[in-house]
Write a structure and sequence with these properties.
The protein is of the alpha+beta class. Helices cover 22% and strands 36% of the residues. A 5-stranded mixed beta sheet has the order 4-3-2-1-5. The longest helix is centred in the C-terminal third of the chain and has 17 residues. The termini are far apart. The relative contact order is 0.25.
Amino acid sequence: MWIRSQDKEILTKAVCIHLGGENHENCICARDVEGNRWYIGEYSTKEKALKVLDMIQRLIKIGGVFQMPQDDEVEE
């Protein structure tokens, strides 16, 4: 799935999307086919980050490019 990062500086074809990373528990990370790992969004709470993962999951079913929302655009 194609995902554009929250800061709009990265557009990657992600093969793995997950919550967290080293000292970044409220970040969403993506790994591409070449094994590169990208921080694609950061949220103020784990609940917000999980909601964004839910949004990504819904879009996977229909295809397209997912634009990571800003923190203030995600309700807890």
